[in-house]
Amino acid sequence: MKPLVAIIGKPNVGKSTFFNKVCGSRISIVLNTPGVTRDRIYADAEWLGREFTLVDTGGIQLKSTDEMHTHIIRQAELAMEVCDCILFFVDGRQPLTTDDYDVAQMLRKTNKPVILVVNKIDDFARLDLSEYYALGIGEPCPISAEQKLGLGELLDLVISHFPEGQEQEQDSEEIKVAIVGKPNVGKSSLVNKLLGYERSIVSNVSGTTRDSIDTSITVGDKHYTLIDTAGIRRKRAIDDDTVEQYSVMRSLASVRRADVCVVVLDASQEVSEQDVKICAYCHEQGKPSIIALNKWDIIEKDTNTINKFNNKLSTDLAFMDYFITLSLSALSGQRVGKIWSLIDMVYNKSQFRATTGLLNEVIADAVGAVEPPTRNGRRLKIKYATQPTVAPPTFVLFVNDAKLLQNAYKRYLINYLRRAFDLKGTPIHLIIRSSTDKDELNNNRKQPN
What we know:
Blueprint: E1 4-9, H1 15-23, E2 41-47, E3 50-56, H2 67-82, E4 85-91, H3 98-108, E5 114-119, E6 140-142, H4 151-160, E7 175-181, H5 187-195, E8 213-219, E9 222-228, H6 242-257, E10 260-266, H7 273-284, E11 289-294, H8 305-316, E12 324-327, H9 339-350, H10 356-369, E13 374-375, E14 378-379, E15 382-389, E16 394-399, H11 407-421, E17 429-434
Parallel strand pairs: 1-3, 1-4, 4-5, 5-6, 7-9, 7-10, 10-11, 11-12, 16-17
Antiparallel strand pairs: 2-3, 8-9, 13-14, 15-16
């Protein structure tokens, strides 16, 4: 297991800036607004051949009575419980505050190695760190995360607290699963129930989750990364909230890097235009998807209820008729465990690869059952088929003239391929190329169907 390093401190001391610099990308949202980071954010890092996991936490204000700050403190406490080393950040441009002293007192009780990091130091030549010894944490380590000054010395201290000779576990292949949906449909509750502990803040306040949060979990012998994302609202509902704009961008990016998407819908409400748009985005990105009908426990049901829901979804999501639904309750845990087998199934379907011989046999059977219609007296002839890529399964048909293919027949071929290869839960790319076309395949990729 990789060592875990937690970044702790009051709001706006540069924790997320340091996190992003060390991990090499803008994983945490960075703004000059206190309280932007709320949940724990994890990312892997490496220094001098030693790999470790860095944990960014929300800004701690112990005396605040705000309910959200209570959640933030609990998340930071969880990070401190499991970490191997703690980085206590203070702002080197401002005098120490009561919040700094309160955090220092909390850290002294952890029995974990704590490194006092004085951030935002731009001039090391005129440095006076004497006041920071009053925190009782030990010798301060000055840095400027923004300018990358002093980071090497700090990371030297960090890895010195790792156990000698600790085996660095090689990452096994994990299936990345993005949990997406509108705000307040139960995404974080579902993640917490799947993990078996409170990984993400759960609140009735819309927009509680702002960052996309990755958590690894092993179920049986399978490894997964669950990505809890911020709720995706309509553009016109976001106003000028820069933080939420970033959050939505991160959620969409999480869809793009995911292997499987679980789109969470609130079963107690009508399917909205925004629900459909989120599903459409997953579809456009070629992601195998599961539609999770959450809050199923509060629905008045009869023997035909689920069929009514599926029929309604079939109309609203006609563009992705391959979708698979699972009715569940993240609150009670009803049927939540079944999601793992569905994730495995749709992921495996997205990785399907047909041999060239079998694929051409299936296409020949499809044409034999229903011949292509004629256009201007000419009939489409499919000469050859191949499958260049997976995720999603992508099939290329070489024909006499691509302009002769009508949309209705293309849809027929897609449906025939889906039935023949049992490709439930995953989109399919179907590319039509004229046999005289010499362009590269990737320049002619179409939208998934």
